[in-house]
Amino acid sequence: MFDSVLVANRGEIAVRVFRTLRRLGIRSVAVHTDADARARHVREADEALQIPSYLDIDAVISAARDSGASAVHPGYGFLAENTAFARACGEAGLVFIGPPAEAIDAMGDKIRAKQTVAAAGVPVVPGRDEPGLSDAELEAAALEVGLPVLLKPSAGGGGKGMRLVRDAADLAEAIASARREARGSFGDDTLLAERFVENPRHIEIQVFADAHGNAVHLGERECSLQRRHQKIIEEAPSPLLDAASRERMGAAAVAAAQAVGYVGAGTVEYIVSADRPDEFFFMEMNTRLQVEHPVTELVTGLDLVELQLRVASGEPLPFTQDDVALDGHSIEARVYAEDPARGFLPTGGRVLALSEPDARVDSGLDVGTEVGGSYDPMLAKVIVHGSDRAEALHRLDRALASYTLLGVPTNVAFLRALLQHPSVVSGDLDTGLVERALEDLTSGDSVPPEVFAAAALERMRALESGDDPWDIPDGWRPGAHAWAPWIITPSGGDPVEVRVQGRAASARVAIGDGEPVTASLSSPFTLAYGGRTTSFEAVRDGGTLWLGRNGHAWALSEHVRAEGGAASATAGDGVLRSPMPGTVLAVKAAEGDRVDAGQPLVVVEAMKMEHTVTAPLAGVVAKLPVRAGAQVALDAVLAVIEEAR
Question: β-strand 404-406 against 378-386: which pairing, if any?
């Protein structure tokens, strides 16, 4: 076994690997960029070295040598499936904790991978996968395969460059668009055409192989709950498969791994029609540990990172296929820094408060962590185990309800809504389910009235604790309290007037045009409102109050108090705010310009996603405080438009 291992990654996967290294008594080494110098994975390692970039192969190799590490664990993402990195480790005398470079190379190219596994007898999706097809040849191939057809880049993954085409008239533009995105994402615009499987389910098999010719599978994971080809919730085992189907798919996955001389942990991904579960087709093989590996760990009782370490050090697998048994059911939910109410745009910020549930949580977060737009938006994973699927679903919902992260908008409330969808509860899944149900799943994102009441009373309480009673905006007069108006604005929402009569400990609160409701706020942050008592987790960050409850989080700002007018009088209809933290890529206007409603003004980029912010009304650009290249925070003012008079 190794005495020291460098983990060439960051965030939750680095922390996850360190956990196993610590248990095995192996010294852990972290690498980090300047921005990650105070990150959790840096603090949890025995030693940490700074590098310019997580993609800098020479810097990672030098760090491993300087630290005295004998092996490198790549995690996932970054260099995990980089053939050049695997070879560089070997040339430097370091053990790469992953498959041989040749296996990575064979499975990294989708065309070559399909040809390799097909030769080994593994079913593949009907299609055309010859390299070098011209646009005309690819269009002809797509028509030959039969519509609907899926155009896929040969290199890369994550859904980038994929196009579903149902109409022959759309083929030419889809091919051009797919090539552009593939070229930009992977530096390779080679495409293949595959028959699109209707009502597809995404099911993958975890395989393990050692250097002694032994290979096994550890059952399947259902990964059909996706959005834009990105997995959201994964589970093991799949509610679709029976024991016979599991064995057939597992045997085919093992054959695929053996066909390329595989060693270590790998995942063979299949597409299965929900209408014909007896048919399965090879999609690709991920030559690394998967993000969703914890659900396999919980149903098998195995530590997959430990197995990786033992196999990489030359040990044989300590069990055979007959020894593998699945116990109960496990489900994992991915917590992303994204805002479902804003079309799942990436978010960011500083973690102000963090309360994790009594469940397995793989995370790289702690209070103070800065979440920016440079890396993947996944922050953490919440994983549960139950005796059966129903119990696991219930436990995951309860775990998410007790997960609170304040300071960075996340998808936790959306995950809870998804878990309660009837098709998810019944196990009737397919990869298009989330997109079809999106409107229903995000319809409950409105801010409850008690949240506005809590925010207004928190402001009252803060002023009441001051030294000067005349600062309290309670409109006191002999014999009565007048109404004190506040303007509360939720992030991404419209300002709402909240009127308070009395003190925070005993008041009447009217929200908007609503009737007054008896309310009070007590420490630490418990609200009595209309006969119902609710406790929040709360933290103030400058002018923003963050409240969290039942997996929901709200960021609320207090605007200038109204002098008796309605909230609409203070609503900045011409104020353009950044929909996400990121970098300004382009500014398409100047101060003094006349613009039309809907005219593009500013382009903001974060996590490789661009968003164009347009003028909400026709008028004149009165203020334009940003320039190309500037970093902007969520809700930062990008421009102010004044109506032309």
Answer: unpaired
| Strand-pair category, 594-595 with 517-522 | unpaired
| Range 261-281 burial, b when 16+ CB lie within 10 A, else e | ebbbbbbbbbbbbbeeeeebb
Residue type, 121: G
Distance in angstroms (rounded) separating the CA atoms of residues 237 and 389: 9
* CA separation for the pair 7, 31 (Å, rounded): 7
CA 16 to chain centre: 17
Residue 562 DSSP class: P
Provide the pLDDT confidence category of residue 609 given band limits of 50, 70 and 90. low
The tally of CA atoms less than 13 A away on the side-chain side of residue 581 is: 19
CATH numeric code, 449-569: 3.30.700.30
* Topology (CATH level 3) of domain 113-125+202-327: D-amino Acid Aminotransferase; Chain A, domain 1 (3.30.470)
Q: What are 3-57's pLDDT values in tens digits?
A: 999 999 999 999 999 999 999 999 999 999 999 999 999 999 999 999 999 999 9
pTM of the model: 0.84
Q: What 3-state class would DSSP assign to 569?
A: helix
Which H or E element spans position 462?
helix 449-464
Fold of 4-97: Rossmann fold (3.40.50)
Instruction: Tell me the DSSP string of 406-446.
Output: ESS--SHHHHHHHHTSHHHHHT---TTHHHHTHHHHHTT-S
Q: Which of 348, 385, 383, 374 is nearest to 633 (CA)?
A: 348
The boundaries of every CATH 3.30.470.20 domain in the chain are: 113-125+202-327, 329-445
DSSP label of 187: S
